[in-house]
Amino acid sequence: MIPVLSGVRVWLAVGRTDMRRGMNGLALQVQEALRRDPHAGDLFVFRGARGDLIKIIWHDGLGMSLYAKRLEKGRFIWPSPADGVVRRDGGGQDHDGGSLRPQTPRTQALP
Hints:
Blueprint: E1 10-13, H1 23-32, E2 43-47, E3 53-59, E4 64-70, E5 75-76, E6 85-88, E7 107-108
Parallel strand pairs: 1-2
Antiparallel strand pairs: 1-6, 2-3, 3-4, 5-7
């Protein structure tokens, strides 16, 4: 489990991410594509093209961490807004104030 403090924002990078990227490549993507600071203490979540793998990068103030989760069955449901990024807060609201339920990524069985 990631010991995340309350108030930490979670950013979902929508679209497809090259999951061969490691910590440095994903941090560079946060800076260049999302125009955010990967060292700010927020969680940045990326999903692969197949939808069964996510990677999370997080800087806790001491160093950068990379977490990965692969589903054996199903895939992660992912939003697709026009601007390419969704910010999650503790109240379950996206950056436009709309709701993105459920708060944790869901899975859906593949046909």
